[in-house]
Structure formats: C-alpha cells, structure tokens
Design goal:
GO terms for molecular function: ATP binding; ATP hydrolysis activity. It comes from Blautia luti. This is ATPase AAA-type core domain-containing protein. This protein is α+β, with helices and mostly antiparallel strands. The chain contains 12 helices and 19 strands. It has 2 domains: 349 residues, no CATH class; 58 residues, no CATH class. Helices cover 27% and strands 24% of the residues. A 7-stranded antiparallel beta sheet has the order 2-1-6-7-8-9-10. A 6-stranded mixed beta sheet has the order 11-16-17-5-18-19, sandwiched between helices. It has a 4-stranded antiparallel beta sheet with strand order 12-13-14-15. About 3% of the residues have low confidence.
Length: 447
C-alpha cells in the first residue's frame, strides 16, 4: 500500500510536491477500506483511493509521471537512459527530459516513496526510500549523471544512507532477511559495500542486494514490479497482466474479464487474446460464432469494438490484480471514454470493505466533476494541482488542507462541485475562446 510519494524539480514541480495516501487527522466519516495497522506502537491509516483535479497543463500527469519514472529507475537499477523506448512516458527512458525547463543551472531531482508491505503475519514493514540525483539541466544529454543521495529506512529505522560516503546503520530491523555472509563478516562486508558504489547505479538494487540482503531487496522490487501499477497517459494503456500460457495462434478468453466486458457492453460474442508466431505480445480480438457452421472467428478488436470498450477491457485485469494483491493502481485520466456508471462501480469496489480485503488502492486524475462528491470521496482523498501563470511552477495540495473553519474552510457535507466551479479551492482556469473567433470574423469582414 502506497503511503506517500514526494518529488522535487520534476518538470513543473520545482518545489517539493507531497502526495499523501495517509488519512489526514480529524477526518470523520467515509472510513471505507481504510488500512489500519500498527508498527512500533504507531497506528497507520492508509487511504483506499484518491482523485486529482486541475486544469490542462497544470501538472496532474506530471505527478503520475514522476511515480512512473521512480518505478522505472528502481526496476532497472540505474540512472542511465533505457534502451527500451516503447514506454508511453518518454521521461522514464530519457531522464534528460525530467529537470524543469526554466532552470538555467542544474538542480537535484528528488524522489521519496513510502509504502507498507507485509511478508507473512510476522513481517510487517513501512518502507521509506529516497533518491536524489544530478541529471544536469533540461535536455542536457551529455551531462555526467550522479546519485547524490540514497536512503533506505524500514519501520522508522535507517538501514543505509548514501551520500559521498556510505553508512550502513541499523540492519537489525531486517535481521531475518540478511545474508549469512553479512552476519559473519560485518566489518569487511561494509568496506566491500563502500568500494562497490557506482555514481550511476542504485546501491539498493546493486551493492545492498548482492552483499547484504537479496531477499529484502526482492521484497521491495517485487512491490514496484507487481503492486505499483502506474498507467501513464490514458491513450497508451498497457497490459501489465501476464496470461496463463495462451497457445500460439489460439484465442485465450479470460472468464472474469469477458464477463465484465459483457456487462460493460461489447459488440461480439466474447473478447479474447491471440498470440501469434510473428508477434509475441497478446493482442485483443473480438470473437464471433458463425450461426450457420458454428465456427469461431476472431477479428481485431480495434476494428470492431469502441475505444472505450477496448480501454475498459485493457484496464479491468489491472483492477482485478490490484484487488487480489492489495496493489496500488495509478491511472492517468482513468475516466477517459468510459461511462460514469462503470467508473462508479469500479470505485465502489475499492470502497467496499467486504470486497477490498487486501486494501487495494485506486489513484487517478480527471476533469470530470462528478467525483467531487462528499458522499463518495473524503476531503483528504481529493487532491488539486495548480500552476502559477507567471513562474509556470506547479503545486499540489489536498482539500483537507483547507481545514474546516474560516472563510475557506471546507465542511464535511459541503457541495464540493459548486465550490470548485466558483474557484473556492483554486486549480481551475477561466477559459474564453470568444475573442479568437471574434477576431477571425473581424478579419473576414475586413477581407
């Protein structure tokens, strides 16, 4: 479960942006699917959902992009550019796209993430990871990149801190996960670790993994791989699901997704995936049964089904995976081309204590005001992104930050939608295209 994500100097977020999935204090009501647990006597309350609002180009997608970039860096274990260019998020592969484009001098790019993960009943961890990197200035491809700082904390105890030097601190907090060589040769192992540092490689997934704890590193990497599902750009929905050995040139119909698709609305008898010899990736097909000869025919889904249907079918397995694993599903423009009733049903699943037993999370940005509803989302679940017209810098804040008293206080059962449209909360822009068309008409008359 994601607890908090922070970034600084990532594109439009020049100052630190903090995205919290921890319940804000004094928030009452709508306690659906809250994850409540204690670590070292301190209670943690994790939220099950969050929705992000803001005008176009404010930075809503940037905060999701920053999550995606950190995920990509951790999974490849370095801050070099990736040779894999197929990602819908270019900055995840080409890191020179990250620094703010208005800065003339190089400033560190910072990421922090905190999440909760269990490994059996006896191992519950609040994991905090920080990464500070020097990537140069915007589009400076030849800059010599360097990791300036890297920190791992577990249950509030610092395991290691890397700056110019390396400090191995409290390993007892992960004692059940240490390699045998670490416990037997602590001093020499620490010296080997310091000598293993590479300025472009993460210590977490390199030296720490190889020398101290491959098992605990795997726990972290598995969370980023399987439970932190970040979908960047709605029009580039990618399947994370891996299918159970679909046969070559055979149609693979997953029962649960097919049933959900039929409820959603499809134009065929079923939907399924085909894997061919030429293209190893599974592709979505509409499946038809010929009423005369009873034979089955498959037609590429993008020819026969609507964009909204295809997008729903691609996304639904990720919803299932999140619910089964207690994963965090982060989607850019979750509501694009999907009917509000279908969206509401998915949101309600995450809010259902009887169904969301593993404390899965749904995070998405949107322009649709229908979700600004005090009966649907808590104040601490509603986030806003606003961009300054002069500096072009973005800021991120929650509805709960306004408090409940004073002129700008937000009460629990307030009409959030109406107040948002009169700019009570900011993060909205008045746009009037009339002068453009008046000028066009004026030019036509003069011409």
């Amino acid at each position: 479960m994601l607890l908090e994500f922070k970034t600084k100097n990532y594109k439009s977020f020049v100052e630190e942006a903090s995205f919290s999935m921890v319940a804000a204090p004094k928030q009452k009501g709508l306690d659906y699917s809250l994850m409540k647990t204690k670590i070292k006597g301190k209670e943690i309350k994790g939220l099950s959902s969050s929705v992000i609002y803001g005008p176009n180009a404010a930075g809503k997608t940037n905060i999701i992009g920053a999550m995606d970039v950190l995920r990509a860096i951790v999974l490849r274990g370095n801050i070099r550019n990736s040779e894999e260019k197929s990602s819908p998020n270019p900055a995840a592969a080409a890191l020179e796209l990250i620094p703010n484009n208005n800065e003339m001098e190089s400033k560190p790019v910072c990421f922090e993430i905190e999440f909760y993960e269990e490994d059996g009943e006896d191992h519950k961890f609040k994991i905090h990871y920080e990464l500070e990197v020097d990537l140069g200035t915007f589009l400076e491809e030849e800059h010599q990149r360097k990791i300036l700082a890297e920190v791992l904390e577990v249950n509030g105890e610092r395991v290691f801190e890397r700056t110019q030097d390396l400090k191995i601190e409290n390993l007892k907090v992960i004692k059940d996960y240490l390699s045998d060589i670490t416990e037997q040769n602590a001093d020499s192992v620490n010296e080997i670790a310091k000598n293993s540092l590479n300025q472009e490689e993460l210590f977490l997934t390199n030296g720490f993994k190889l020398i101290f704890s491959p098992k605990f590193t795997k726990l972290i990497v598995d969370w980023f791989t399987n439970k932190f599902m970040v979908i960047y750009r709605a029009d580039s929905m990618q399947l994370i699901k891996r299918f159970a050995d679909p046969k070559k040139k055979a149609i693979y119909v997953e029962k649960t997704t097919d049933e959900a698709a039929k409820l959603f609305g499809i134009n065929s008898n079923a939907v399924g995936y085909v894997v061919s010899d030429d293209e190893p990736d599974a592709k979505l097909y509409s499946v038809f049964k010929n009423m005369k000869n009873k034979k089955t025919t498959a037609v590429a889904a993008d020819i026969f089904e609507s964009y909204g249907t295809i997008r729903f079918i691609n996304m639904f397995p990720l919803v299932i995976k999140a619910m089964q694993t207690g994963g965090t599903l982060v989607v850019d423009e979750f509501d694009a081309s999907i009917h509000p009733m279908a969206l509401m049903s998915i949101i309600n699943v995450f809010h259902n204590d009887d169904v969301n037993i593993h404390h899965a999370q749904l995070i998405f940005n949107t322009h649709n005001p229908i979700f600004l509803n005090s009966n649907l989302f808590r104040r601490d679940e509603i986030k806003f992104v606003e961009r300054d017209d002069d500096t072009h810098d973005s800021v991120l804040y929650a509805l709960s930050d306004f408090g409940t008293t004073g002129d700008k206080g937000v009460r629990k059962h307030e009409d959030y939608m109406s107040k948002y449209f009169i700019s009570q909360y900011g993060a909205i822009k008045d746009i009037d295209f009339t002068p453009i068309f008046e000028e066009i008409l004026c030019d036509e008359k003069e011409g």
